[in-house]
Amino acid sequence: MSAKRLAQVNELIRQELSLILNRELDFPAGCLVTVSGVKVSVDLEHASVYVKIYPTAHTQAAWHILIHRLKEIQTLLNRKLVMRFVPKIFFRLDASEEKADHIERLIDQLHKNNG
């Protein structure tokens, strides 16, 4: 499958899952769960769905909801998408911002120690 087609499938799944999470799941008050990205395997069998949970204090509760309602979310996605095979989804916690913050703090610390 071409890279362009995979990118289109990634974006389609990201959009649909965003809608499903917002409409169908009840997260704790003040909790925001966003789908930051999707990476579908070349054979379209699996999709890693990267989610960000704000604030981080709600991460455990929101993650619990996502994992325990995974089958229901998959079923809703299967009904929504018009594809021969809808990839099986797996949630992954997107910690890219935390990693970037950590690296930035390390760089700042190096500058303080050297300057």
How many helices? The count is 4
CATH topology: GMP Synthetase, Chain A, domain 3
Output the radius of gyration.
17 Å
Measure the end-to-end span.
Answer: 51 Å
Q: What percentage of residues falls in helices of 4 or more residues?
A: 40-55%
Question: Can you describe what's shown?
Answer:
The chain has one domain: K homology (KH) domain (GMP Synthetase, Chain A, domain 3), CATH 3.30.300. Helix content is 54%, strand content 21%. The protein is built from 4 helices and 3 strands. It has helices spanning 3-24, 59-68, 70-80, 96-114, and strands at 32-40, 46-54, 88-93. It has a 3-stranded mixed sheet. β1 and β2 (46-54) form a beta hairpin. α1 crosses α3 (70-80). The chain is flat, with a radius of gyration of 17 Å.
Question: Which key terms come to mind for this protein?
Answer:
single chain, 115 residues, alpha+beta, GMP Synthetase, Chain A, domain 3, 3-stranded mixed sheet, 21% strand, flat
In short:
The protein has 115 residues and is an alpha+beta fold. It has helices at 3-24, 59-68, 70-80, 96-114; strands spanning 32-40, 46-54, 88-93.
